[in-house]
Design a protein that fits this description.
This protein has 4 helices and 5 strands. It is an alpha+beta fold. It has a domain at 41-128: Hypothetical Cytosolic Protein, Chain: A. The strands form 2 sheets. Strands 4-3-5 form a 3-stranded antiparallel beta sheet. A hairpin with a 2-residue loop joins strand 3 and strand 4. The longest helix is centred in the C-terminal third of the chain and has 12 residues, at 114-125. It is globular and about 70 Å long. The termini are far apart. The model is unreliable at 136-144 (pLDDT under 50).
Amino acid sequence: MTRRARLVEAGPRVRLPEPAADGVSVAGRVVTPSREIAGPVRTCVGCRERGQRTVLLRVVLVNGGEGSSLAVADTARSLPGRGAWLHADLHCLELAERRRAFPRALRVGQVDSMPVREHLESVQAGDDPAARPSFTEKESGLEADGHPMSTQR
């Protein structure tokens, strides 16, 4: 447990200032909490930006036959095996291919990422709305259950 603070006095009875509940420390300094993203955080293998898991596309490795490995988009996030995360953007895919990020992230030799490219092109063209990453939306209020908060009659 280490905290950084300056001690005004020295000795065994000197204590570090404790932050107050409103974010301002006893010493008068403003304490700002670090910015955190709610939910699981993943890193895009293309642009190296961190983001929520719901925003990124999971890419997994499957056998393509004849000893080749194919990287495929896991839109349901349920395929077995090691996964890499990528923004659903062709620019991030090109960065990942140029940096050879898929073989490194998936821990294999050569990877064919053509199925991922085809998936991203179809999503950007609007051909397959079911291929987009799944988002879970939680409803509340009247729209959630159709009943007002008062007692039912």
